[in-house]
Amino acid sequence: MDLGIEVILELFSKQGLTDMFNQAVTDDISENAERILSLRDHYILSIDDVIEFLQGKQPTFARQLCSDTYLPQASRFNQIDDMDWAFGNMGLQDKAKHLATLFLEDLSDFIVECVDENFGFSRYAERLGRSANKFDELYTHLAGKSTYIDQIALTLLEERIKEVHPKLVCFSVPFPGNLYSAFKSANYIKKNYPLISIAMGGGFPNTELRSLKDPRVFEFLDFITLDDGELPIELLCDRVLNNNLDASLKRTFVLEKGGVKYHNNSILSDYKQSQVGTPDYSDLLLDKYISVIEIANPMHSLWSDGRWNKLTMAHGCYWGKCTFCDVSLDYIKIYEPIVASTLVDRMEELIAQTGEKGFHFVDEAAPPALMRELALEILRRKLSVTWWTNIRFEKSFTQDLCRLLKASGCVAISGGLEVASDRLLALIQKGVTVEQVARVTSYFTEAGIMVHAYLMYGYPTQTEQETIDSLEMVRQMFELGIIQSGFWHQFALTAHSPVGHNPDAYGIIPLQEEIEFANNDIQFTDSTGIDHDKFSFGLKKSLFNYMHDMCFDFNLQEWFDFKIPKSTISLDYIEQSLESRDPLDIKSNAKLIWIGTSPIVNEFKKSKKGKEQPYLQMTFNSVNDSLELALPKLEAEWLLNILASSSALSQPLKTMGSVKSDYENRFPNFESFWSSDALQDLRYFGLLSV
Fold this sequence. Notes:
With 690 residues, the protein is α/β, with parallel strands linked by helices. The longest helix is centred in the first third of the chain and has 23 residues, at 92-114.
């Protein structure tokens, strides 16, 4: 079960809001909270319709939501004046979705102020889980009185326990914002059902709890597993369900003789990625998830716009070198790709299971070669899907590969530009340059694929000059339209990264604390002595405007309330980088692929020096354009045969080397033919070399 969505649906209902308002502490509250409280009947009246609309069940309700007289409005609606320039002429459905989102955020603000200070839609009590080297604060909160939100969650949990009668309950905790609720739920089970065993795994334990020492954790849990969970959970099931107390364990913490003990003594190998199967979402309330919309960030809107089926193309990261990343941990370090046919098998299974055709591949960085094979397999099976993923902006992403990805349904990619400084990119070991990133992002954009860039500031040894120069690079990329979305985040030192393992090499001094509970984010001092925090507001404010095509002509100083150095980057740096794009070279091992349609062919004769020559006129139609191409008949017939045999459905695909040899057996100078205007036009219609 997804306890998160079930709690939200219970809370944001007529009965839930009625009970919530009755629970609220309304002494000495803000003017905004007073307004919401005075409009409680309006919130209660409209809540069910709002939720159903956000679930996609009442599209006709959009006009009501946009009427300006239906939804009660508090402080979040102060943003409405910005909607026209942020969204332009947005459709009625999107506008209604945004207003409904503001409505929920107003209620959330009231809940935080008057009911439960730790409330969040997806990150409840996140503060308690962040870098908690000691268990003390979380332990104290868990011992306290249950909040109203806790009571909702525990009631739902109780219903499910009575329905299923489990012997083993497993909590997946991906983020710090899920930690408190997991422990609270586990505590309830321990007190009321002491015979049920409880395990925890997921992203948070994998990164944060590898140095666990505090035995009090096992007042709530029996087992904590790390990394890939398939085999550890299988072994736990053997121990608990079959009462096999001698069963070996894999990457599992337990309590033994009053102390925390780590077991990794199973001789069994972990399952290969090809063996783990397709995720099973059949018990989740897939038709009840809500879809909200965010005004600030196109990529964040994509995340929340509907429900995406989650898959991975590969276990781990094929690059695995970035110095800020947890590359020492197995979920990054152990790289194991999945073959494209298996991936598409899983996509088809999930479509049949969920009815959803949207896919988010959650890889650290999807491998370009596998993305190519995935795209081809989607095209071969004639699947109509929408998908996006995370990448490195590496040179393998050519114009043609980006066009192929788009043809298969790819609508967006996100990647780490990090710091737009070649010195710092080299220090990070990103394996790319700013110029390369600019070219690759332009290829994706030209193909119609949205580009989101992760941006970083405050990396060790980064100077103020480099921060401002990086901002100027980002400004130019947005002004040229080769990046559409971005997010600035401050560098965080993690215990499992190369920087964390060798801080001296990066000029920082970690502030070491005794670790008894979580251990990942580490406070540190930078040898530069620069206060990077001060740049946060200006970087984010400028980016907000750039994402909405605003303020490119502002002097960078205008974003900051303190003196900054003048940028040393020329105003046409990115533009010049784009002019030096990859040459049109012919790689002999590249595959030739035709993803266009069969042309309409007509023969005609053309007089040259008194002699008539037969020509073929070929009309190629795409969904939104057409191209007329005339070639001498023999050359045209050769081309038509090549197109027919280079379809994405063809197996095996021809290499450019074999195509070149075949051409030159009949005609001279393939290079001249391939670089001709006619062939370049045809490439836009689907003749690709990848």
